[in-house]
Amino acid sequence: MSQTVDRALSILPLLAEGPADLGQVADRLGVHKSTALRLLRTLHEHGLVHRQSDQRYRLGARLFALAQEAVENLDVREIAHPHLVALNEKCGHTVHLAVYEEHEVLYIDKVESRYPVRMYSRIGKPVAITVAAVAKLLLADLSEAERRAVAEKLDYPMYTSRSTPNAPAFLRELEKVGEQGWATDLGGHEESINCVGAPVRGADGRVVAAMSVSAPNVVVTAEELLTLLPLVRRTAEAISRDYSGTGPGNTGNTGNTGNTPQKEASSS
Amino acid sequence: MSQTVDRALSILPLLAEGPADLGQVADRLGVHKSTALRLLRTLHEHGLVHRQSDQRYRLGARLFALAQEAVENLDVREIAHPHLVALNEKCGHTVHLAVYEEHEVLYIDKVESRYPVRMYSRIGKPVAITVAAVAKLLLADLSEAERRAVAEKLDYPMYTSRSTPNAPAFLRELEKVGEQGWATDLGGHEESINCVGAPVRGADGRVVAAMSVSAPNVVVTAEELLTLLPLVRRTAEAISRDYSGTGPGNTGNTGNTGNTPQKEASSS
DNA sequence: CAAGCTGTTGCAAAATATGCAACGGCCATT
DNA sequence: AATGGCCGTTGCATATTTTGCAACAGCTTG
């Protein structure tokens, strides 16, 4: 809609691949060097782009800070967090919270396992959408038309032999998940890791987030993990109740507009 | 330099404070609603902004993904990571890696403590710059003029009674840190948490990153933590050697330009 | 039922971004 | 040591793009 802004924003994913110099940016944008320079300068002023010692550009610090602030202001996350911690204290495994947005599912919170074996995942990282328990829960709540549309646009990488192979299988799985109200991922992403998840619902009954407990085979078998299902579901329902209490169905924040409260702090 | 882009980017920090509707955005930008609409649309197309169910806008998912990709492509981080893990395995405490950029210090990697007591901090989060050991290390390497300039622009919040109180004290501390080649934070940020850190240097001897080990009093006393200093310094030097080996002094990446390799995966 | 609010579109005026060409610094080459 | 080439940078005139306006549409509120 706005050409200038469009071009400027196209620089960001480009730099996410790695540092680039002015010429490379201009080429890939298909614009004159001077134009690219001015766009980069504007991005630089806003801290979204940083110029390193060799004069090349890469993504800047403010980007992290923004993403950070954004995720901390998500009210579902705020409400869910203590529940996730409590769940982790009970079972000891890794707990995740995820949301669906714009054809992507991404983690917005995580409580690390107490066991020495940990799994790789990170807040903000897009989820393996075709296999993750949280992804199934979130997609299962979409209308059938939307599900179909999404399912057909996806790739179905075979992470393991138990990964969801194709769109029909995925749609069947989503239907099942939608009916039973919970989901699993049994070695569909990494051979040795299993997950059990449950949905968090708003006041209108729609799924606004999904949570899951994950653990590797070496700690508990899939069957043992499944015994946690009632606990997981109860936790998800507790979050849903808390969440429905605050804002009626939507994603309204707590009302802090205009100033940025620093509620928690970090340490060296 | 580019007004349109400038305005569009100004929307991001605004939304970081919390969701806002069209009118609010237009007002705070000082532009007509239709203008704000078109800017928001462009941001939306790029996924930087998301429209929630109540029609209000907030920061979008792609922002997280971008920040994520960016941090994973930082070569210092990539090189340092195995060393940090190894250090964590030896001592069991939380290990941090941080860089300085554009008047901010921020964490770019973290290995969690193996002890049940953990500390709050998150990758991408700006560091408490006046007290953190890593911040002292990074700022100590700036020229005296820069140090002075930075120190005078800072706030000096008294997190605890042992926080750095003002600019002169901070500058003295930086001088000391620069000379001795290591730094501490003994309860300056949170009363019960101590840190020891050491600098990572590039081939030209300049400090490119800083690492630290942090532990709460309840696990080890400050004196015990200080016995780890040689180990921390050796680790930092090992990282420096690895880092200097790759690119001569700069922040060159590994050469993956044009395609985005998916080297690691997440799980539900 | 009407009034007010919010978001949305088409259009003409005007401000803005664009590409060009020329300059300057830097490194590598001859 | 000198030169050639490369990359980033600037001023300027052209014209493309954005902007604000005014009117419309959809929704909730009085």
From TrEMBL, chains A, B:
Domain called HTH iclR-type: residue spans: 2-61
Keyword Transcription among UniProt keywords: yes
Domain IclR-ED intervals: 62-245
Coiled-coil region(s): none
Protein keywords: DNA-binding, Transcription, Transcription regulation
Organism superkingdom: Bacteria
InterPro entries xrefs: GAF-like_dom_sf (IPR029016), HTH_MetabolicPath_Reg (IPR050707), Tscrpt_reg_IclR_C (IPR014757), Tscrpt_reg_IclR_N (IPR005471), WH-like_DNA-bd_sf (IPR036388), WH_DNA-bd_sf (IPR036390)
Region annotation (Disordered) ranges: 240-268
Signal peptide (residue range): none
Entry keyword Transcription: yes
Protein's recorded name: IclR family transcriptional regulator
Organism of provenance: Streptomyces kunmingensis
